[in-house]
């Protein structure tokens, strides 16, 4: 399994979807299900963080009076 912190949003979402699929089948043992759930929770948290970072960057795009983008401002914390 990949280190979640270094995963792209897309890769984390793909693994999260696969993890949910495995849990939904009900074929995993209890111990495996708990591990899958924990990994899924970490993947969800990572995806939410990456999405918030992207939203912050989009919000920092500056617009001219005519509504055209003129550049960006650095988002705090990035």
Q: What's the arrangement of secondary structure elements?
A:
Layout: H1 9-25, H2 30-59, E1 61-63, E2 69-72
Antiparallel strand pairs: 1-2
Helix pairs in contact: 1-2
Notable features of this structure?
Helix Hairpins, 2 strands, two-stranded antiparallel sheet, 60% helix
Any overview of this molecule?
This is Exodeoxyribonuclease 7 small subunit. It comes from Paracoccus sediminis. Its EC number is 3.1.11.6. Bidirectionally degrades single-stranded DNA into large acid-insoluble oligonucleotides, which are then degraded further into small acid-soluble oligonucleotides. Keywords: Cytoplasm, Exonuclease, Hydrolase, Nuclease. There is one protein chain. The chain has 78 residues and is mostly helical. The chain has a single domain, classed as Helix Hairpins (Orthogonal Bundle). Strands 1-2 form a two-stranded antiparallel sheet. A hairpin with a 5-residue loop joins strand 1 and strand 2. The model has no long low-confidence stretch (mean pLDDT 86).
CATH architecture level-2 label: Orthogonal Bundle
Largest sheet: 2 strands, antiparallel
Q: State mean pLDDT (0 to 100 scale).
A: 86
Rg, Cα atoms, Å: 18 Å
Tell me the fraction of residues in β-strands, as a range. 5-15%
CATH topology annotation:
Helix Hairpins
Number of E strands:
2
Uncertain segments? none
Number of helices: 2
Would you tell me the structural class of the helices and strands? Answer: mainly alpha
Order of the strands making up the biggest sheet: 1-2
Helix and strand succession?
HHEE
Count of domains: 1
Coarse morphology: rod-shaped
Name of the level-1 CATH class? Mainly Alpha
